[in-house]
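Problem 12. The chain below contains 154 residues. Write out its predicted structure in token notation.
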Amino acid sequence: MEPEFFLPQPKPTAIVVTPLMREVINRSLSVHLLSALVVWFGSGRIGKTTTARYLVDWLNQRFDAQEPGSFRAFTYEVGRIGKDSGNEWKKAIKSVYQAVLDTQMDHGFYLRNPAEELARLTVHALRRMDIQFLIIDEAGSVVYRSNSGDKSYS
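Solution.
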């Protein structure tokens, strides 16, 4: 008789929407039409990432290309940029472009153009896909490290 084995199964995650989550989401959505930059900050492990993922899922479930005012959202987690690699901003923009749009940025365009032009291309492509809400998770660590001169991104 063959022994019976059971593979471990992850426990299903249930998100409980708290009053703070509702407030943060409502405030973020209320300024959306103003094309505002919204920054969520605070100590670790307080629910920023969970709220972001919940909001993105909620918006994407309700997306209907035929409905005016409907739009898509995407959450992107900042990845590793090599130590002293140079052009960190260009690499970050290219990374967002490729992750969100699921396509490669033309390498020649990347080499010839400054970060601002790469950002314009990325925003244009996001608009074509009706992605109007982009949440960049852990973005503060890139900004902080870049401004402080610490090039050992993790």
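Discussion. Residues 143-154 have pLDDT under 50 and may be disordered. Students who got a different answer should revisit the alignment rule from Section 12.3.
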